[in-house]
Amino acid sequence: MPISGTPNRSELVDHLVRTRIAGDVATPRENNLSHYRKLANGDRNFWLGLELGDRWTDEQDVLAVMAERCGVNDDPEFRYGQDTIDPELTVDALDRMAARLRKSAAAKERVLFATGHPGGLLDVHRATAAALRAAGCEIVVIPDGLQTDEGYVFQFADVAVLEHGATLWHTHSGEPMRAILTGLEREGRPLPGLVVADHGWAGCAGQFGIDSMGYADCNDPALFLAESEGTVQVTIPLDDHVTSPRHYDPMTAYLLNAAGLA
Question: Which secondary-structure segment (H or E) carries 195?
């Protein structure tokens, strides 16, 4: 069960490993390598709203970044079995995100939240949005009537999501974020100063030149590559859909406390 209250760093690391948010995660090595290869081969479904050009055409280069920033096994000969996320890297990234959230709160910035993984991360984003609103930030309200080829772009509990068939939809696409940002421009409204998201929502925002931070799994390398290039400010490595969304609560509590938003 999730630990109660706000954990310290060592308690959070233990919790992440116990709930498999980090440590020995469920994502198999062969799935990770397949995604790294597809990204390197130019499959834009794995670019997560970013424009990577021809900068990452060697899957071994992608693996090296993922080993450094996510904590997957760095041995290119390890091709089957269980892969890993380093929980210390997860907490390091949470600390970096907390520092940027603290800056947003001090400046009372306009902040946009979005998720392509509502089954796991919706409440993480919702709680962070509520904390920033309480600190005086404006949480961006997205334009009405937005849609993409996949479905409709709605806002639920302050978090932008994709809706399809009366269901919140899992998506890696950057098109929903593109629809929001171009919709804001069309209405003559200012763009957010910060986007906190995941998947293509975070990648597309960073590609637009907006400060962007996101959560990413070990089989979604694009945001880690973008962080290494400076297009995305912070990428937090974690398993983005574990057995219960409540397992993320201690992580959220740690983040908000570190940001001075608890």
Answer: strand 194-198
Structure tokens belonging to residue 43: 């499959």
User: Phi then psi for 237, rounded to 5 degrees?
Assistant: -80, 125
Q: Which residue, 61, 38, 60, is CA-closest to 48?
A: 38
Which residues does 136 contact at the CB level (< 8 Å), separation at least 6? 105, 108
| Residue among 204, 212, 209, 205 at smallest CA distance from 232 | 212
Contacting residues for 239 by C-beta, under 8 A, at least 6 apart: 20, 21, 22, 25, 26, 27, 85, 217, 218
Q: What angle do CA 182, 185, 190 make, to 5 degrees?
A: 125
- Its pTM stands at 0.96
Question: Around 85, how many Cα atoms within 13 Å sit in the side-chain half-sphere?
Answer: 34
pLDDT tens digits, 160-215: 999 998 899 999 999 999 999 999 999 999 999 999 999 999 999 999 999 999 99
CA distance linking residue 84 with residue 53, whole number of Å? 28
